[in-house]
Specification:
Number of strands: 12
Number of helices: 7
CATH class of the largest domain: Mainly Beta
CATH superfamily of the largest domain: Trypsin-like serine proteases
Helix content: 40-55%
Distance between the termini: 199 Å
Largest sheet: 6 strands, antiparallel, barrel
Length: about 375
């Protein structure tokens, strides 16, 4: 190879080698510059941290904790405000309810006072009605005191026995028809069956030993005789008694005729006569207050004339004519341990029911006032002489 070509080849290689070295040097310079910048920034930050004073860091941390506590307190305050608002609403509701209760209490007190006034007026009206009824008996019926006694007081009988006292009403005193037994007059009385059953118990075939009469003609108007049960109906609480007395009893109750009985209704004046608590006959005045009170399938009438224990079996009469319209049966009570009597709520069996019952028993003559027919002698306890 010529020398010139060798020199050119060597020169070319040298230039190439030099270029590569220069390129490597540039790359290395850039690399070191980048690392130096990064390192410088990190170092600056580290230096800044190192240069931050310790008190400043503590103050910043305390401030952050304070802000956290302030935030928590604010949250608790908000919750408390909500609770206070709810309590306020509840108190307002309670206040409204309390005011409503006060208004209701005042209204109830006013109503109680009004009822008290009405009760006084009712008692006053009842007293006036009783006075008016007495005036009716005196004026309209034209009955004297002795006549009223004969129709209301004298027909009453009083029965005692087995710790029980009750009443009855004499309704019949007639002889036996035809060739009847020579036994004088047959005297019959109506009463309530429960009075008889309480006196005799299960032995209804026994006699009631103490039956007191209040009609004139008996010794000191206090004749005491015995009596026996002739007929009864438990569901109707009615019974018929025959007295062991053969004398004629003139003062009997006067049964009201059926057509007149149909005219009676609520507000019709009425009088109850009986022996309450074992007393001599007592008459009380009132009104019929119901004509359709059903007790165990049987229809009773109600009267507001004051009655009590012992009135059972006594008579109920129309005013002013003093006619018998029923037999007193029972009185309303309330309470179980110590029953309290409601004296103005008494029930009696009306006379039309009694008349139907007597007719079914073939004892219709009792209210008709005719002599005892032979068909009834046996029931009366007698037998024909033949």
């Amino acid at each position: 190879m010529p020398a010139e070509k060798n020199e050119q080849f060597i020169s070319s290689i040298g230039f190439k080698t030099l270029g590569i070295l220069v390129f490597i040097a540039v790359v290395m310079v850039q690399f070191y510059q980048g690392g130096a910048e990064d390192g410088g920034r990190s170092g600056a930050q580290a230096l800044a941290r190192e240069e931050t004073p310790e008190p400043t860091r503590l103050k910043s941390a305390a401030l952050e904790r304070l802000l956290e506590r302030v935030g928590a307190s604010q949250h608790r305050i908000e919750v408390a405000m909500k609770n206070l608002e709810a309590m306020s609403i509840g108190l307002q509701r309670e206040r409204d309810g309390f005011e409503s209760r006060l208004d209701a209490h005042d209204l109830k007190a006013a109503a109680t006072l009004l009822r008290g006034i009405e009760d006084v007026e009712t008692v006053k009206a009842l007293a006036e009605a009783n006075s008016a009824s007495l005036q009716l008996i005196r004026n309209e019926a034209g009955l004297s005191v002795s006549q009223r006694k004969r129709l209301l007081i004298h027909p009453v009988i009083q029965m005692r026995g087995n710790g029980t006292v009750g009443s009855g009403v004499l309704v019949y005193s007639e002889p036996f028809a035809g060739e009847g037994p020579e036994a004088g007059y047959c005297n019959l009385a109506l009463t309530a069956f429960h009075v008889v059953s309480e006196i005799l118990g299960d032995r209804l075939n026994r006699k009631i030993d103490r039956v007191k009469l209040f009609s004139p003609g008996s010794r000191q108007s206090r004749e005491v005789v015995s009596a026996r049960l002739v007929a009864f109906d438990k569901s109707k609480d009615i019974a018929l008694l025959r007295l062991d007395s053969t004398r004629r009893i003139r003062d009997l109750a006067r049964p009201m005729a059926g057509s007149s009985l149909n005219r009676l209704d609520i507000f019709s004046p009425a009088c109850a006569v009986g022996c309450p608590l074992g007393n001599s006959p007592v008459a009380t005045l009132g009104q019929i207050t119901a004509v359709d009170k059903e007790v165990e399938g049987e229809s009773f009438w109600m009267i507001n004339a004051p009655t009590y224990f012992g009135n059972s079996g006594g008579g109920v009469y129309s005013v002013p004519d003093c006619n018998l319209i029923g037999i007193f049966s029972m009185i309303y009570t309330y309470g179980k341990a110590k029953p309290m009597v409601v004296p103005h709520m008494g029930l009696f069996l009306p006379l039309d029911s009694i008349a139907k019952w007597l007719g079914n028993e073939e004892l219709g003559f009792v209210l008709e006032g005719t002599a005892v027919p032979p068909t009834a002698w046996k029931e009366m306890g007698y037998s024909p002489r033949n």
